[in-house]
Amino acid sequence: MGITYRKNGTSEERGLVSPLPRLVICLALVVITGGCGFTQSKNDAEAIAERYFEAAQRGDNEAVLSLYDQQFYTNTPRPKWAEMYSKIVGKLGKPTKHDLTNWTVNNMVGIGAGRYVTLVYKVTYEKDAGRETLRIFLPPSGSGGILAHNFTAPALLN
C-alpha cells in the first residue's frame, strides 16, 4: 500500500510507514524515565519504613511516633495513637523480621500534591506473625512521614 504525494510538481509513490515502531520507542522512554521517579519514591518510602522497623525492634516508641506525618496526627491525636500503638505492641511483641511483599506509588498534583507510597510487609513479631501496611506521604519538598498504618494479625483479634 502506498501514498502518492507531490514533490516539486512531480508525483512520487512512497511506502506507508507504520507508526508502531515510533509509538513503542516513545512508550519505552516514558516508562524508563517515569519509572525512575516511581523507583525513587519507593526507595524514599522504604527508608522511612526501615527507620520505623528499626525503632520498633529497639522498643523506642518515641522514635516510632516521630515518623508519622502531621496529617496522621490531625486525624488521630498523638497521645491517642501512642496508647493504641502500645496496646498493639503489647499483643504482638516487637517485630523481629519484616519482608516487603507489595508496593504502589501514586503521584498527585494540586491540593495534596506529593507522592503517596503504600508498602505492604509480612512481619514476624515476638508473639505472632502478620502484615503491616504503611502509607507514606512524600511531599514535593521536605521530608515525608507515615500517613496511615494498618496492622493485621490474629493476636489483635483477642
**Total number of domains:** 1
**What structural category characterises the helix and strand content?**
alpha+beta
Question: How many whole angstroms does the radius of gyration measure?
Answer: 25 Å
Tertiary shape: globular
Number of strands: 6
Helix content: 40-55%
N-to-C order of helices and strands: EEHHHHEEEE
Oligomeric composition of the shown chains:
single chain
Cα(first) to Cα(last) distance is 72 Å
Q: What is the CATH top level name? A: Alpha Beta
Largest sheet: 4 strands, antiparallel
Strand order of the largest sheet: 3-4-5-6
Question: Can you name the CATH architecture?
Answer: Roll
What is the percentage of strand-forming residues? 35-45%
Could you list the spans in which at least 5 consecutive residues all have pLDDT below 50? 1-6, 26-35
Number of helices: 4
Keywords:
two-stranded antiparallel sheet, disordered N terminus, 4 helices, 4-stranded antiparallel beta sheet, alpha+beta, 158 residues
Explain this structure to me?
With about 160 residues, the protein is of the alpha+beta class. It has one domain: Nuclear Transport Factor 2, Chain: A. It has four helices and six strands, in the order ββααααββββ. It has a four-stranded antiparallel beta sheet. Strand 5 (about 130-140) and strand 6 form a beta hairpin. Mean pLDDT is about 85; it is low at about 1-5 and about 25-35.
